[in-house]
Request: fold
Amino acid sequence: MLIEDPKNAYLYAKTVIKGCWPEAEKYIITDPYSAYHYAKDVLKKRWKEAEPVIAQDEDLCFKYRGEFIGLGRWAEAEPTIMKDPKRAYNYAFWIISDRWPEAEQYIKIDPLWAYYYAKDVLKGRFYDAESNLAKDPDNSVLYAKNVIKGCFREAEPYLISNPERAYHYAKDVLKGRWYDAEPMISQNVWWACEYARGCIKGRWEDPLIELDILKSKHADRYVKGCAMGTVKEIREQLLRSLTSH
Reply:
């Protein structure tokens, strides 16, 4: 029967009856999608009896809350909201405006939202998330820079093999050279150039690394930022040095 199918019952109420269908509501209320749209399109108001069902859907509970509940907390939906790290962060930041301990077990799984939660909500370290954060090169650098405001030792084994992130960690966190990472950084001419400019603040001591940079399209940038003279002059100097040994 049409009345027993939640979606068709909602559509019939909306398009044919063009208003409430009380007899069908006990069926409509069993399905989050149909219950949400029945409240939105037919009742055009909050439907409290259906809220425990609507709250079970991650997308619809956010829409319903915005349209009918307002800015306060919605306790029935929180068990659903907290399971999505992005939504849990947003709920903690915008709605609770404070730490949300019950949601942290889910937020900590996602390095991006764990970082934002630490920075914006905890305003300090999120220790339970650090094992996951350490394995994520992008967010571990941001976490070290903006939350720890110093070394993040657990992340270094993962950063050291990534020339770009190793450079940013050295420049933005260590504020200088990261000797252990230099063998890997030096293998990428662009990041080797940037590392010399931003961390060494001078020329690479290894002439072979420097020659690789000087043979690349980044040679002018390197010389302007790190050396005195022209690319040709520096290259000739290096070649003489290498051939004299």
DSSP finds 18 helices and no strands in the chain. The mean pLDDT is 95. The two ends are 93 Å apart (CA to CA). The CA atoms of residues 82 and 88 lie 5 Å apart.
